[in-house]
Amino acid sequence: MKILVKAKTKAKIEKVEKLAEIDTYKVSVKEAPVDGKANEAIIKALARYFDVAPSTISLVTGQTSKIKVFMIK
To answer: Per-domain residue ranges for the chain?
Structure first.
């Protein structure tokens, strides 16, 4: 399944929120967008939210963007 993620970095609280749009989520993480650390944190947050292993989630597009597409196997 592909999902659209609106990333919020340097947040005080890590959380995943489902938005009104289909398959769209807002993910807040504490990490800064440096050296891919925020992307790794987003993957871990999504893994907890969907109760899957982080290895089943991959970033499809948006490596350096706030709008990202992830694939969950």
So the answer is: 2-72
Are the beta carbons of 23 and 1 closer than 8 angstroms? yes
Q: Model confidence over 41-53: pLDDT tens digits?
A: 999 999 999 999 9
User: Angle 28-47-54 (CA atoms, 0-180°, nearest 5)?
Assistant: 115
pTM of the model: 0.94
What is the number of other CB atoms lying within 10 angstroms of the CB of residue 33?
Answer: 17
* Beta-ladder partners of 70: 3, 59
Question: Can you point out the beta strands (E) in the chain?
Answer: 2-8, 15-18, 24-28, 57-61, 67-72
- The CATH number assigned to the domain with range 2-72 reads 3.30.1200.10
